[in-house]
Amino acid sequence: MTEQKTRDPKEVATAYFRSFETGNKEDSWAPKYVQELISEEPETGWDMVLQLVTSAPSKDALAYVAEAALEDLLKNHGSELIDKVEGESKANERFRCTLSNVWLTDSDEIFPRFKALRKKYGFDKSDPFDSLTDDMFTKE
Predict the structure, then answer these.
(1) DSSP secondary structure string, 73-117?
(2) The pTM is what?
(3) 41-68 per-position pLDDT tens digit
(4) Does residue 82 form part of some domain?
(5) For the chain, what is the domain count?
(6) Which domain covers residue 69, as residue numbers?
């Protein structure tokens, strides 16, 4: 990894979302760092994705986490993490909403279990993002 792998997850999340919202080049290290974790350290990447889900300041930011981080993590390391995904889905509504914006295909190894989660939580019938409101996100 090009960055120190013991960075504070909250610091990373703050810079990650600042980069997303403003395009600030000074924070461009954060999305790169997250992608490196996802690619090279799936367990640490999982923890980072959970921090991002918790820290997302808006619906758009949460959708970005789904598309740019969680989806990549599941495509590359889903078989290692699917048990955790199922457990987190059961316990964490915000994570479920994030997961609903992930797109996997039948060529992805975990697709049958992912499809079962989509069915279990009704993602195919309604979008959990529709139930999210701005007051559910804290602005710092």
Answers:
(1) HHHHHHHHHHHHHHHHHHH-HHHHHHHTT----TTSTTHHHHHHH
(2) 0.89
(3) 999 999 999 999 999 999 999 999 999 9
(4) yes
(5) 1
(6) 9-136
